[in-house]
Request: fold
Amino acid sequence: MGTSTLTIVAPQTADTPQERLERLYDACRDDVYAYLASFLGDAGTAEEVTALAFERAFRRRRLFNPRRGSERAWLFGIARNAALDELRRRRRSTSLRGELPTDGWGSDDHVEDVVRRATVRDALAELNSRERDLIALKFHAELSNPDIARVLGVSESNAGTLLHRTMTKLRKACDEQA
Amino acid sequence: MSRHDRAQMTVETRRELAAIDAALAGEAVAATDAPLAELSRELQTMRPRPTDEFVRTLDARAAGGFERERPRSANEAPHRAWGWRRALQASPARRRRVLLTSAAGAAVTVALVAVLAASQFHSGGGASATHSGTAAPSVAGPAVRGPALSAPTRPSSDASTARADRFGAQTSNAGRATGEAPRQVERTSTLDVGVAPGAVESTAQRVFTLVSSFKGYVRQSNVGSGAGEGGASFDVRLPTSSLSAAIAALSHLGRVRSENDTTNDVTDQFGSLQRSLADLRAERASLLRQLAAAADAQRAAALKAQLHAVEARIAQSQGQLRSLVSRIDYTALSLSLTPEAGGAATPGDLTPGGAARNAAQILEAALAVVVIGAAAVFPVALLALAGAIAVAVTRRRLRERALDAR
Reply:
């Protein structure tokens, strides 16, 4: 009768920070890259900063505190700080114009799709950096609103309001572009 | 705005946020939210994807626990560190051993700092007198493009001070050229350091530590360990901002045999690439406008082909610009460690005499550090605490400011 208790407890306590981070890496690798590529607007720099972000996360894996938010929010906080550090470094030396990386146009793409995507891309360019950051966190990092709030250091309702305002502005910009 | 309006807005905000989440999850939304859902899905499809090559590289680094670059023997697999660490976590005895090793490493690091500090006191802050008049012939610097300034190889007696002055002068000259865009300068350096024959491997390890501490990295290394055939060479990349300090630190690994610095002004090339990129982007915008207005399918297909070509040229220009920026930000340093049988006692000298001298220096400096540290510990601790808080706050503000200034 007592054997069932043992089987429940063992797997959870065996979870080391290293193993948790391995799982986090597998789950978030592409999301972190997508967020940084979108945020920084340069694929090459995004690759460097993605590697740097995971390097920092591996180094600080024991400092993660689950009471301060999810692992995903913690990781994206590190990634965002690494990206901001990169922006500061580039500002001191040289700068590259940020633009959403594109995979190019496929020959099978419909003209409507191409034009619509270009319209959204141009509308995105009209947003300021903080708004583009928010879009990248929501749609490219695919973070939940509570996680976005955690990454930005604001309340959940504030994050929701900011996202709503940004989407309203983006829709307006799309309408004007069209 | 009345409280009623605010309440209305909150309800609308919540509804639209829920519609966004539903659209991202592939669920149906109300007809009023259809445009918002379509925009959400469009943004989702624009999500950038990593290349296969990058994914492979990153996975390999993850398997190695994201250790910083360090020398590996030929038969050491990259994923070995991961398993090694896992074993450590499982075994308390091994963990204790690692802690002891770490403590010993920390002690050695403190001792190394003490030795460096002591050597500064003994030699008056510069390179020692053993450097004078013994410089080897110049090591050929890498080829330069455009108007290049090649510094001649000089005797190393005044290497540290002369180096600091020269880089300081260049910085101030650049600073005086105000009113225009900053000059973009690419640098390359070579440094040949003589070390005791038995100390090549230990000195090579120190090279990695020093390079890492200056936020640089070793691109390639070759450490020979055969009897009489020792020697090491490194292809190092160092942040240009800390180049002079890094070379000064590396010079203390032994006796500087030769040194060469080359600068190459690439401002014109940089500006040309930026202009080219701007032109291409303008061309792309024009093509997109034409595509939107295209009346027939044949014309649209032709425009799409042109767009494809322009996108490729933009990617190529961006790659060239990125590569150039990387070369500006990071200086290539070709570092050689050459065994010298008659070398004087240096921090890397492991002969009995040299080791004894180093040990005496370590003890002397460590004692001085302990005495000074004991006297200063309380105010320093308070200052450190206040400093840590100030740094944390300032860093956050600076990061956010970087976002605003973009």
